[in-house]
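User: I've been going back and forth on whether these two constructs are worth ordering. Before I decide, could you fold them both?

Assistant: Sure. I'll take them in the order you sent them. The first construct and its structure tokens:
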Amino acid sequence: MLEIIKARYSGYCSGVKQAIIKTEKYLKTKKRLYSLGEIVHNTNSVKLLEDKGLKVVDNIEKIPSNANVIVRTHGLPFNILSKLKKNNINVIDGCCPRVKRIHNIISDNLKKDKNIILIGRKNHAEVLAASSYDEKRIFVIEEKKDIESLPLLKEYVVVVQTTFSPEKFSQLTGDLILKIPHLEIFNTLCDETLLRQKEVKRLSSTVDLVIVVGGKNSSNTRTLFEIAKDKAKLVTDPDEVLPEWLKKVNRVAVVSGASTPVEDVNNVVRKIKNIYEKFYLKKKRRKR
């Protein structure tokens, strides 16, 4: 009999949940609400909000003056926020509190005339927003090779993308310590994300298959997938689950990214049960 284990830490994290609740609450006022880019990195979650009236645009020019805009969980670049306010646009803060902590650390230390190292994925929305505060004094590090191009300064303040790999963060800070005389390191990794990563690491050692449910453009979802490595399959929709994945599988774990609704996780669990019942359980009964 197939054993299906649903991860304890499934569904939305608190930051995503807060942004979704704020968005839904505002949409109930019947006023048009815009989001510049996806408010969270999950297609299904964004689609649910669009069905309720959220207008997702990819360019600030598509947002009319005096409109209402919800800031995505990853934050928005400083120049974009300034432009929105100049256009008399009502800005509703949906930024994750953990991401805002990074912004506050950066802002406070820039005022002290300190230089910042931001460890994270260069093209990720969170990193683009945080690094926009001062492109001359904030240096983004994603790989070891990026350290070589750093200006040889005596002192840096270090922060890290909330959903970055803890192992990679540790490796890069170790390399930085060997090069920079004085570092003030802030561990700004999200504790909720870390709990999911630890759980996936534990589960992957006890099951035959790990199905990760989440957006393929989600950094934290991608990290969960990478942790499970050869045992992992990444899906956004239950229809992506294939019968051949369950061949010779006795135990399967279903885990989710932080911006994945728990309904999506439950739908994937149901899909696995249906596939097992249809393709494998009946065959076993016939053999008896």
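The second construct, handled the same way:
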Amino acid sequence: MPSRRRSLRVLVWLAAVWLVAVGINHDRPGRTVAHALGQDSPAAARRPVTETPQEYGPELVDAGRARFASDCGFCHGREATGGSGGPDLTRSELVAGDVRGNQLGPMIRAGRPDNGMPAFPLDDEALAAVVAFIHHQKGEADELSGGRQPVVAEDLRTGDAAAGRRVFDTSCARCHSAAGDPAGDLAGDLDGIARRLQGLELLQQMLYPRGGRGGGPAPPTVTVTLPSGGTVTGPLAHRDEFTIALTDDDGWYRSWSTDTVTFTVDDPLEAHVELLGRYTDGDMHDVLAYLQTLR
């Protein structure tokens, strides 16, 4: 009898293990063994094959390594294998199809604002070095295994806070206060921001604001001038090539054809978009260093 009970317990235990393995549970129905083993994660996916194998000299790769660590490592990890805010470049289809920077170069210089990547206006020498390093890492990774790596804190501490304050005073102080705003005239009070945001999260908020105190930035406001000469102002509700719309003071949605009215849009975040085109990599690091002092 005892042995039969032990056998029954073993069978129950084996059944439980099998159910976990195939993922039959209430929270995530239908998960398979492949899911349980992590095979649907980016780190488990096969890296794309390099279409045109390339070789670079060690001096160029080392120069690119240093430049990549200072300019790109805070998002992509200093080994280019991914970090908290950026993808693993050794798994990138664009890198796999790139030939000595013909695709990487334009992308690096223009950035991908829609994906949170700023432009990096590197000169030809620096760009060639970064491209060499990325391809070197791709070749190394093709022979190894491993997943994403965290952002290294030191990569976010390369800026000059004093230089960052000068950039801030020139480009940011019109809308932001760094020492509190008792009068409430400025929309962006940054006093103590380094206590609320740190490292990569602070950099991302600096480049692409998603919100802040009070629930986030104010929405864009539009002023529509009617054919009669009167004006209507309110939060922007919709805008495309053919239509402009707002919400008026009574909460009504009002829209006009763009060829029948004139209008101006006041977007409090437009200045950040403009700055992305003017920031150098040094400016970004310097302003971040300054913001990290606002405790």
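Notes on the second construct follow. The chain has twelve helices and seven strands. The domain at 160-216+272-291 is CATH 1.10.760 (Cytochrome Bc1 Complex; Chain D, domain 2).
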